[in-house]
Amino acid sequence: MTLAQEQPGMTPDKAAVTFSLFWFLSYLLATVAPYLFGKLVDLRGGDYGLAMAFATLLSSTFLLGSLLMRETREPAARQAAQGA
Fold first, then answer.
1. Which of 18, 25, 30, 69 could form a disulfide with 4 if both were Cys (CB 3.0 to 4.6 A apart)?
2. Contacts of 18 (CB under 8 A, 6+ apart)
């Protein structure tokens, strides 16, 4: 959650815009996803298979996104080694 704040040259104004955009997109997706889930079930005649695959794929983006994020700070061990 603090990735935006840790970026070089980040100001409070830029951080506010970044977080506002993040929360807007998150809530938009949280609103649209159940509708799409229901539409997929209806299109398949009541079969939940494709809709469940959609929900699983959507949920897995959280894991993939967290694995792809880079750490902006140096690990504590490296900082300690450089300071000694």
1. 18
2. 4
> How is residue 73 annotated by DSSP?
S
Supply the pTM of this predicted model.
0.67
pLDDT category at 67 given cuts 50, 70, 90 is confident
Pair 4, 15: CB distance under 8 Å = yes
The position carrying tokens 């959280």 is 62
Instruction: Count CB atoms within 10 A of the CB of residue 41.
Output: 17
Cβ partners under 8 Å of residue 4, min gap 6: 10, 14, 15, 18, 19, 22
